[in-house]
Design brief:
222 residues; Rossmann fold; five-stranded parallel sheet; two-stranded antiparallel ribbon; 16% strand; elongated; four-way junction helicase activity
Length: 222
């Protein structure tokens, strides 16, 4: 789990090229338009954004959009992944440390253990968690109130999500592969950030080889 920074050289390289705000995003027009409407509505209500599910092939910008959502809402973001949250206690520690309106980004959310997933349900619905103290006849269930937050879940395999979890996301967007013209613009933007000279023909060639994926395009540029 991390709030910011961290990661190896490749991750830092990718992070340096990510758009920070919606206006900087290239492509995924339907996702950008839908998020813009949802974000504006949440800001006008003065409430946390509804929970967001982002699904699609790897490298298309799910992590980028999670960070953009946090920036647009002016909140912090805590990042983890399904395999990293092994027990309900792990999730409890994350949830109780969130500030009001924070984004909790869970990558590979389809890999959450079922027990952890069920622990998440009341947190998503009622902003509370239930936990049991003592054992046997003395066992008691306590309810702990959480600050309102937004869960952004990302998955490459939406079909593996259970129906109860999927239904708790008020906003869901599928990310599509990028056409060559949009990837060419991505390459040109990245080249500008990196101060790398690339011709228009070179940018188009990189875009054609990137298999519709900005992450691949940026690595080819590198």
């Amino acid at each position: 789990m991390r709030r910011d920074g961290g990661g190896g050289d490749d991750e830092q390289f990718i992070r340096s090229l990510r758009p920070a705000r919606l206006d900087e995003c290239i492509g995924q027009a339907r996702v950008v338009s839908g998020l813009r409407i949802s974000l504006q509505a949440a800001r006008e209500r003065g409430e946390a954004l509804d929970h967001v599910l982002l699904h699609g092939p790897p490298g298309l910008g799910k992590t980028t959009f999670a960070n953009v959502i946090a920036a647009e809402m002016g909140t912090g973001i805590v990042t983890t992944s399904g395999p990293a949250v092994e027990r309900g206690g792990d999730l409890m520690g994350i949830l109780t440390n969130l500030s009001r309106g924070d984004i909790l980004f869970i990558d590979e959310i389809h890999r959450l253990p079922r027990a952890v997933e069920e622990f998440l349900y009341p947190a998503m619905e009622d902003f509370c968690v239930n936990f049991t103290i003592e054992k046997g006849a003395d066992a008691r269930t306590l309810r702990y109130a959480l600050k309102p937050f937004t869960l952004v879940g990302a998955t490459t395999r939406a079909g593996l999500l259970s129906s109860p979890l999927r239904e708790r996301f008020g906003i869901a967007h599928h990310l599509d592969f990028y056409p060559v013209d949009e990837l060419t613009r991505v390459v040109a933007r990245s080249a500008s950030i990196l101060a790398v000279d690339v011709t228009e023909e070179g940018a188009v060639e990189i875009a054609r080889r990137a298999r519709g994926t900005p992450r691949i395009a940026n690595r080819l540029l590198r």
